[in-house]
Amino acid sequence: MELPAEPLPDPEGHGALEIAGDGITVELAGDLRGAAPDAAGDGLAGVGIRVTGRNATLRGAHVSGYRIGIHVTADGVTLEDCDVSGNFRQRLRSTPEKEAEEDWLAPHDNDAHEWTERYGAGIWIERSNDVTVRRSRARAGQNGLVLERCERASVYDNDFSFLSGWGIALWRTSDGVIARNACDFCVRGYSHGVYNRGQDSAGILLFEQCSRNVIAENSATHCGDGFFAFAGQEALGSRPPPEEGFDYHERGCNENSIWGNDFSYAAAHGLELTFGFRNRIYKNRLVGNAICGIWAGYSRATSIVDNHFEKNGSAGYGQERGGVNIEHGQANQIEANWFESNVCGIHLWWDEDPGLQALPWMRANGDDSQAFVLLNRFTRDGVAIQARGPTTLVVWNNMTNGVGIEFQVDREVQRIDAKEGEVPRAGELPCPELPGTSRPVGARIALRGREHIRVGEWGPVEPDGR
């Protein structure tokens, strides 16, 4: 299908083009533009292509100048080789000298389509199951791909980088595969050496009970957070329950497998995953993150195994800094990781937090602090292991070399030096079978280091040729 050369606006928001037939394939030639190339990003409106046909395939679409480039509301849809660069993005008020608080994103609400109204996206897939997005690209926008209330999505071999919000964002979306995507430099709220806030931007974002997803071999470096998962306000009970008798027991973003990704050089955290159960974090690279490599507050039965933590925490806030930080965690397994030159390797604590302790989630799941720290190697870290408040710390067979302080623990901490056979082991998590062929991890090696993050009026600035 040949597209018109002139802009094709969509003032009513119904879609400049619609693909409504079931099982058809549409291949587009040319660019679909909703506005002139020099139009301001925060004034873009409408939808470029709306896909409502089940099992349809859209190939080769180049869509720009809209609030949403491609909007899908049908099962079994495949999007491939699409470019959704140049769609909606907010004008940022922060400058290199000073952060603007109004630039903070608000990902906590989306049940009334707040993300659509506030932020838009290159690709928006809503209430659609068994969809595939592959070999697609986004630049000069705010969000690359949003999956809202989807099941069994397959997202791979895409490059959603240099965006001012989220590379790939999930809302109430489960049982999907997010693999081999580049989501680098999805960032705002950063000025090197001046402030490092991130403002809730992220390479990969999971909000409000997204579970059993495989997140593997992605690169999400130089972001606000590389990976950001939060149980959600419904899960915590910070808003009225959706139904009488709503059960808060083990609500969260649960049982996700996070394997072999690069979450380095974040403005805030390499990986933030809070109020979740039985998540598995294996073989990831977390280097040079400003605050900490992993922030896993209130996590439960999380396995953090065979990851590489190096030089994290140089711009932390107080005692939140370093490799792994967990507040009020329970039965978390921190095993066989390599820590090197972090401000602090592992920091665990319990403290009074009456606001959170009053929530239904806390009453249903408790707020104890406990962790198993086994077989880790610490080299040249400022502090290897720190624990504060009433915390049970089980340690076994950790190795240190050249660290400043091996253990820094309060008198309230119960430290148990276990013997072999007395402690549970997390064990191996084999590499999952993944779709796709790209290898984004390490592909931007020349840009390693947070000093390469530069944020302008419309978002991160992309170096030439990257």
Word description of this protein:
The structure is a single chain. This protein is mostly beta strands. It has a domain at 312-428. It is built from four helices and 41 strands. Strands 1-4-7-9-12-15-19-21-23-26-29-32-35-38 form a 14-stranded parallel β-sheet, with no helix packed on it. Strand 40 and strand 41 (459-460) form a beta hairpin. It is globular, with a radius of gyration of 22 Å. The chain starts with 16 loop residues before the first strand and ends in a 6-residue tail after the last strand. The model has no long low-confidence stretch (mean pLDDT 95).
The major beta sheet can be summarized as: 14 strands, parallel
Overall radius of gyration: 22 Å
Cα distance spanning the termini: 30 Å
Summarize model confidence as the mean pLDDT. Answer: 95
Structural classification: mainly beta
Share of residues in strands:
25-35%
Strand order of the largest sheet: 1-4-7-9-12-15-19-21-23-26-29-32-35-38
Tally of alpha and pi helices: 4
Helix content: under 10%
Summarize the structure.
With 466 residues, this protein is mostly beta strands.
